[in-house]
Specification:
The structure holds two protein chains of two kinds.
Chain A lengths: L3 H5 L8 H8 L18 E4 L5 H7 L6 E4 L9 H12 L2 E4 L13 H14 L4 E4 L2 E4 L2 E7 L5 H18 L3 E4 L14 H12 L2 E5 H11 L3 H7 L5 E7 L2 E2 L4 E2 L8 H14 L4 E4 L7 H22 L10
Helix pairs in contact in A: 2-7, 6-7, 7-9, 9-10, 10-11
Chain B lengths: L8 H12 L5 H4 L2 H10 L8 H23 L1 H7 L1 H14 L14 H7 L8 H18 L9 H5 L10 E4 L4 E7 L1 H10 L9 E10 L5 E5 L2 H11 L4 H11 L1 H17 L3 E5 L3
Antiparallel strand pairs in B: 1-5, 2-3, 3-4
The chains are: A alpha/beta, B mainly alpha.
């Protein structure tokens, strides 16, 4: 397994003491608890516009719904009414795409103020966004641009996460993104980078198992090594989704069923991490709600099976 | 911009930010120097060269923003056709890069930009400009702030001699337009899935977009004087000044229908307050 020892062999250990703490010593009391002490909500689905009518009419007994924060950061109108209808019936968590935590531009305080107000309204137990950058001076790319895996980037991101967590007064979970390019500047593996940021920032991780698979394919690393290396108590939520294989690379399209190999990786992750709130994402070529919920039920069945066989502490069995 | 092997995080991001916003395919256009710079930052792998890896992000940048504009401007897209729409979208994004964290704001500057644009395909410009404003009106009215409509009891307490100096505050989601073509009918046809014709005869049209109790955006045709009155009131004019201005355009309509218009606006929830002089 690659980790702190691998880094030390490359003369990097001087400025990377936080990496050594990764697997050995946690930096806060809550980091000693599974999921940073946050609840396991079961298996949910992303709340998407094509499903609104069905969900409001049929009130499916899904464990929780994940809201895209930006869809509700508006001043008025139907989105806010829909939000209140969701909050009246379901537990929700918020997931964002615009935080741009890795950008070199200043934090967007207008965005953060709106986000904080929304988190207060939804009572989300944590808030997640991506470990990436999204903007440069003068332009927002609206994409999840990968970061170079460097010590400089670890320090930069961790400091901003701490500021955001303090401001929001809420645990932030950083999601590993799918990526399609590799930087020459990178000196760390992706999993060491993610671990270092999470430990240094004392924040959560949203582990997207599909993204691990996609990036493993695109960059030729071993997905199991990744899953085994991240700090287990910091994973507060898991994402699962489908993707599109273009041959030379895989694109993270959220347009299909979860593939078998990702289900296997999910099972592996649960065996190590215990039961973690799990969310199915489906964002293009969206099928009917029951099809998406079917994937969540499949995840729940795997969770229950793993919980029975492993009996990990902190796990709660959820009905499917 | 040039990049060095020991570039900082900010320099790497600035380099890539400029790269993915380039309008031309990196593989087709990259000269030796540009390709060398890309190779300085991006490693590639055994399946994709550094340029090909960067090209994935550049292509996604354009697809994402074009699709977003296409979704927000359905009538403009239908009127121009796919190729001309894409060409205009690229020109707009190059001139005014997306700057807001939300894609909802992507097209807010487009209608004003199109008002100054002079290279439309033959004859399409006048209608295209109006459709752009109408499409944007639907977006901004949809999630604008909401205020509670004024209560009838408050209206009843306003003394008759206070009305001329009164300022009528309107619902923030209300949008009013004066068009030279019946572009509202064209837009509805597009939304119904019809394929409208390619000719739209000139027809002066005054309309309001407003959010109904169902929170959907509706439209109402206005008389010319009614439109002028709403424009003045929205700008903060007193009722008497607004009437003077509207009278110049529609003397008979304003005089005969002012009371009817006001009650009509109130019924639709367009009036949120009436401020009189103390």
């Amino acid at each position: 397994m690659q980790g702190a020892g691998w880094l030390q062999g490359r003369g990097l250990q001087g400025g990377l003491s936080f990496l050594e703490s990764n697997a050995l010593v946690t930096t806060s009391n809550h980091a000693r608890l599974p999921r940073l002490g946050l609840p396991d909500l079961g298996c949910g689905v992303g709340f998407r516009i094509p499903h609104y009518a069905h969900v409001f009419e049929n009130k499916p007994a899904v464990d929780f719904l994940e809201l895209i924060s930006e869809n509700f950061l508006v001043d008025g109108g139907l989105p806010l009414k829909n939000l209140d209808r969701v909050l009246a019936e379901w537990r929700v968590v918020q997931h964002g795409v615009s935080l741009g935590i890795g950008a070199s531009t200043p934090l967007d305080w207008e965005y953060l103020r709106r986000l904080k107000a929304l988190t207060r309204h939804t009572q989300t137990p944590w808030v997640t966004d991506h470990l990436c950058w999204t903007r440069v001076p003068g332009a927002d790319l609206h994409d999840l641009m990968p970061l170079p895996y460097t010590e400089e980037a670890v320090r930069h991101v961790a400091e901003r996460v701490r500021i955001v967590q303090d401001f929001l007064e809420l645990t932030v979970g950083l999601e590993n993104t799918s990526s399609y390019l590799t930087y020459r500047a990178s000196t760390l593996t992706e999993w060491d980078f993610l671990s270092a940021v999470a430990n240094e920032a004392d924040c959560g991780i949203l582990l997207d198992v599909n993204n691990v698979y996609v990036s493993a394919y695109n960059h030729g690393f071993d997905a199991i090594t990744y899953l085994d290396a991240i700090p287990k108590n910091r994973v507060v939520q898991i994402h699962l989704a489908g993707h599109t294989n273009k041959g030379a690379y895989i694109l993270d399209t959220h347009s299909d069923f979860v593939v078998d190999r990702v289900w296997e990786l999910y099972r592996h992750a649960l065996q190590r991490l215990g039961s973690i709130s799990t969310l199915i994402e489906w964002d293009s070529e969206i099928p009917d709600f029951d099809t998406v919920w079917g994937e969540a039920k499949k995840a729940a069945a795997i969770r229950n099976e793993v919980a029975r066989t492993v009996g990990t502490e902190g796990q709660d069995e959820h009905p499917t | 911009m040039s990049i060095q092997p020991d570039a900082t995080l900010a320099e790497i991001q600035a380099f890539l930010g400029a790269l993915v916003r380039r309008s031309d395919n990196l593989g087709a256009s990259a000269n030796v120097d540009a390709e060398a710079e890309i190779r300085m930052v991006i490693a590639g792998n055994d399946r994709l060269t550094p340029v090909q890896q960067a090209e994935i992000y550049r292509e996604q940048f354009w697809l994402r923003h074009r699709d977003s504009l296409d979704e927000d401007f359905p009538a403009l897209s239908s009127w121009l056709g796919q190729d001309a729409f894409e060409c205009l979208a690229r020109a707009y994004l190059a001139a005014i890069p997306p700057s807001s964290w939300t894609l909802r704001d992507l097209g807010v500057a487009w209608p004003a930009w199109l008002d100054q644009y002079e290279h439309f395909p033959s004859g399409l410009g006048p209608v295209a400009r109006e459709l752009a404003h109408l499409d944007l009106g639907f977006i901004t009215a949809f999630d604008a702030p909401a205020r509670v409509p004024v209560h009838a009891e408050k209206v009843a307490t306003i003394a008759e001699d206070a009305w001329p100096d009164a300022r009528i505050l309107l619902q923030p989601s209300l949008r009013v337009f004066a068009f030279k073509h019946a572009v509202n009918g064209y837009r509805w046809a597009v939304r119904r899935g019809d394929i409208p014709g390619s000719l739209l005869p000139a027809k002066p049209t005054w309309i309001a977009l407003y959010r109904g109790e169902d929170l959907r955006v509706h439209e109402a045709e206005l008389a010319v004087g009614e439109h002028a009155l709403l424009v003045q009131l929205a700008a903060g004019a007193t009722l008497s000044y607004a009437c003077e201005q509207a009278n110049a355009l529609d003397p008979e309509g304003v005089e005969a229908q002012l009371g009817g218009w006001l009650s009509h606006w109130a019924r639709r929830g367009w009036v949120v307050d009436i401020v009189t002089k103390p």
